[in-house]
Amino acid sequence: MHASEKSGLLDQVINFTTVFLGIMIEAVPFLLLGTVASGLVEVFVRREDLIALIPRNRFTATLMGGVMGFTFPVCECGVVPLTRRLFKKGLPVSAGIAFLLAAPIVNPIVLASTFAAYGWGNILVARFVMGLLTALIVGLIFSLHEEPFKMMRAPAPVFGGSGEASPVGGGSALAAQPLRVKLQTAMRIAADEFFEMGRYLAIGSVLAALMQTLVPQSALLSIGSGPIISVVVMQLLGYVLSVCSTVDAFISLAFVNTFTTGSILGFLVYGPMVDIKSTLLFLGVFRQKIVVYLVVLPFLVVFLMGIIINLNFGW
After folding, report:
1. Which of 24, 145, 273, 284 has an alpha carbon within 20 to 30 A of 10's alpha carbon?
2. How many independent structural domains does the chain possess?
3. Nearest Cα to 153, choosing from 279, 285, 290, 291?
C-alpha cells in the first residue's frame, strides 16, 4: 500500500470517528431526556387517565397526537422511547405515530432554533405547518389498519379496529408509594430504556457515519438544482446526515443560496422525522414492514409538499 493510500485511509478513519462521535454526543443527551420522560410517564401517568383524555374520533385523536409534540422538548432520538411508553399506556397507534413524527419538528426547542437561524418568516411557519400536516396525514393512514396492535414488535395495549385504545387495565401499583420511591422507580425504568434503545442509536450512528464518510456530499449536491430533483436530494441528505433537529436549521443555512426553498424545507421536515439512526430506533418499537412504511410515507408526503412550494411560491 502506497503512502498516499495509507494517508487516505487514515483520513477516512479519522473522518468516520469524528462523525460517529459527533452524532453520538449530539444525540445521547436527547435520548436520555426521552427515556427519563418515558420513566416518568410510566410511573406518574395512569392508563385510565390517558385513555380518558383521548378523543374517540379518529381524526381528532391523531391531531391530538401531533399537537402533543409541542409540549415535549424531545428530538427524533428521545421521542421514540417516550412514544413506546405511551403506546403501552394506551395511546392509539395513529396518535402515537403523529406524535412520533411531529415532536422532533414542532417542539419549542426546535422552533426556537429555527427562529434563531431564519427569523420570523416563511421557513419557520412552513416548517411547523408541513411537519404537523405530514404527521397528521401519515397517522391517519396508519389508523386505517384493522389491527393496529400487530404493528408493534413487543406486546402492546389492546386496540379496537378503529385504532382507539380499549379502556382496560388498572391503576398503578405505585400509587400508594412515597414520591422518593416513585422517582427511583422512574429512573430505573429510564435506565433500562436508555440501554435498550441506545444499542439502536449506536448502530444507526455507525451507519450514518459510514454514509457520510464513503458517499461524498458533492455527489449529492451536484444534482440538486431543479425544482423536483433538489427536493429528493435534500431529503436524502437529511436522512443520511442524521443531524439532530435542534441544530439542523443552522446546517441548512449553508444550502440556502444554491437550493430551492422547497428542498430546504424537505431537509428541515423529513430529516428530523426520519433519518438513519431513528430508523434503527423504530425497529425497537415496530415490525420491520411498518418501519419501511414509516420511512417511505413521510418521504412521499414531504416530497409532494416541497414540489408544490417550488412550483407555486416564489419564496
Report:
1. 24
2. 1
3. 285
Q: Count CB neighbours of 232 within 10 A.
A: 19
Report for 49-58, 75-84, 267-276, 296-305: range of highest mean pLDDT? 296-305
What region, left, alpha or beta, does residue 91 occupy, with left being phi > 0 and alpha being psi -120 to 50 degrees?
beta
Structure-derived torsion over alpha carbons of residues 219, 223, 224, 228, reported in degrees to the nearest 10: -140
pTM of the predicted model, to two decimals? 0.74
pLDDT at 26 over 60: yes
Q: Is the separation of the CB atoms in 84 and 77 below 8 Å?
A: no
Q: Please check whether residue 5 lies inside any domain of the structure.
A: no
Task: Find cell 396518535 and name the residue.
Answer: 95
Give the Cα separation of 103 and 68 in Å (integer). 7
Residue with cell 417542539: 107
Single-letter amino acid code for the residue at 10: L
H-state helical runs in 144-246: 179-214, 217-221, 229-241
Instruction: Decide if 307 is inside a domain.
Output: yes
Domain interval for residue 244 = 10-312
Task: Map grid coordinates 451507519 to a residue.
Answer: 207
For the stretch 158-170, pLDDT in tens is: 443 334 443 333 3
Residue with cell 444499542: 199
